[in-house]
Amino acid sequence: MDRKDKIKILHIAECAGGVERYLAMLLPRLESNFYQELLCSPRFHRETFERSIDRVRQIPLSQTFSPVLIWKEISMLRRWMKASRPNIVYCHSSFAGVLGRMAAIGLPCKTVYNPHGWAFNMRQNRLKKAFYLMIERLMAKKTDAIVCISEAEWQSAAQYCIGKDEQYQLIPSGIDIEAVMQAAPISKEAIGLADDDFVIGTIGRLVPQKSPDVFVKAAALIQKEIPNAAFVFLGGGELTDEIWAYAKDHHIKLVMPGWVDNPYAYLKIFDVAISLPRWEGFGLAIAEYMAAKKSIIATRVDAIPTLIEDGKEGLLVPVDSPEDVKDKVVFLFTHPQEAERLRTNAFEKVCRDLRIERVAEQHGLMFDQIMRS
Hints:
By secondary structure, the protein is α/β, with parallel strands linked by helices.
């Protein structure tokens, strides 16, 4: 298809982490049929997208409540939209959703919003929850389509009366299963572990949402029960120093390599993969654990029970419960046949339901539908 005949999509993203990984899998699979530009914050790895889409630019987007900074960011986005003239502006996550949709008001383009987890579902006080709800309801009036990446997210939208039914597109998230399966494991020795270590790992940002404090507290309990236990936390964030200090004080065998270019190589050496968010829009890391055929322990929150049925594809625990996490790890360690059954079920489910190719196909249909309407 000639470039001039393609629908032009401008993606706007501020929050990295899971959103960046989602876009890194999705955007290359849309490139043959759509012209795509990405405006993202400096926290994104620009080179990841330069190889796979038409244009990438990093701009100073940030999560701020300063009216002056918000106005500057909206003005900057609006100038870019006027110059770029996209057919569709696609905003990813809450802050980018507000900034991008406000910048697009009055311009000849359609707007799509993907919250990647509703901000009002996060553990906020009542005043903040009410504020985020008000913003989402107001901005829904300026949106052509709202993408929900899980059924739980879609149900929240209906419960809190955000937008209209016809605006919603349920496109459950997915992953690149082949990329996970083909990744070669990193050497345990290369990261300071022994060959016979029983590795408990997690992938995520070191921020309050992902509960790294619960992970490391559970680690302190686990190592008393499993002497050869070792722990890997793959990611970075504001709580890094705090977690390091706790691990040192409790003599926990912990590896924290930060953000790496080959996360699946680390995932391949996990014996148990853990995800303990306090709230979660989808749970991308959990789907990756499933594709890697790992035993999974996760919190029973938001969309996660739609990915993992407790006792079928993995084991679920309450939020903020390091003792329960310890009990589940010890169970998997002492019941290898049961652990194998859970891993097999999880792999079958991810192959059946959670392929990124299906996500790309649904997006293509949505974009065509929006332009026709």
